Amino acid sequence: MKILVFYPYVPYPLDRGTYQRTFHLLRELSREHDVDLLALVEKGEGMEHKAVFEQFCKRVDLVPFQHPDWPRLFPNRLCNSLPTSIAHWSVPGLSKEIESILHERHYDLVHCCDIVLAQYFLKRNTTIPLSIDRSRVDLQFQLAEHNRMNFSWKTKLLRYEGYAKMLLYEKAVARRASLEVVCGIDDEIFVRRWISRSASVQVLVNGVDLDYFYPTSSTVPRAASPTVLFCGAMDYNPNIDALRWYFANVHDALRIKIPDLQVLIVGKNPVVEIQKYGEKTNVIVTGGVPDVRPFYRRAWMQIVPLRIGGGSRLKIVESLAMGTPVVSTTIGAQGLGLVHNDDILLGDTPEEFVNQTARALQDESLRERIKVKGLETVCSRLSWKTLGHQLSELYRNRFKPAGDKTKRPGVFSIASTPPPSVKQI
Description:
Helix content: 40-55%
Number of helices: 16
CATH superfamily of the largest domain: Glycogen Phosphorylase B
Shape: globular
Largest sheet: 7 strands, parallel
CATH topology of the largest domain: Rossmann fold
Radius of gyration: 22 Å
CATH architecture of the largest domain: 3-Layer(aba) Sandwich
Structural class: alpha/beta
């Protein structure tokens, strides 16, 4: 098949969760299809990485882009039917440019990242099949933020206006898209319940690059004392909320059980609230690091106390691939098909989270069992190579290349693929 992949950014270097997903799916699709990349480049950022994508894409086009200023409430925002978060990605003239590209190159499918780009296919370019890979379901995520974050009354009023527009926009996207690819079953359930029962939705969870993340990819030894890690972007609302909940409800009780507990908070752009946690005894806030693997190896466990859902957590699959067990909330681990007390530990109340974390830190045999099983799970079904092949097969079976008159099955069945070998534990 000939596929145009359309991204709102250049996903490189791989220092963000969404970059991991978009980069690896693009590379895996290019192994089995002819793929061109069209990406927006804000202020020239990412232009220098064009050669990275030219190694596996047939053609790479980077479009200079400038986000418009956030609009005033009246008249700009209220008079625009698009949600503000979508209008922020509007580029004058781009729909016409895309139309010209599609007419010239005759693609079988457009694969785009997230619904911010769907706006270019709602009124124009409506005949080509459109697949949207969603790192999260926007309306679901925004409502979860609303329930958990301490927004001001003014912010809440503005967000209510956004929710109404987002619901209408989500419905329009569901009508237009030939396929929506989501990260987890919870995302699919939300789409079918609140947006469209008839939407074409396929779950493809997040994965991990097993050539980069594996237990011996770092020689750093485990810490001498019990150490837990929380990894992620530290200016991201779900991560801020997760740590706020952990330190308000879990940390002190956990230290009573594990007095010499060490906590590592690793991730770029820590906001002031996150930085202040570093003032606590045995809590280290690193900020951004050039390589997260030594921290995965140093920690005895990774904690994922997330309460805001949507998508699935790359930090979990990376940790398991490094041989570091995980304790998470159910929301934090949603979509990955992991089983409590088998390849992960789960706890949703403060008491459960304390008990599961302490239980694992105090029981080396339990950690070893969860570690081995988690690594087996990741290697058997959560590598990007496996997931990318599944997506390629889905497209091959769902969409018919131009000129191909052969009937193709309407129902996708995941191909049976041999699991990658398990590297040394």
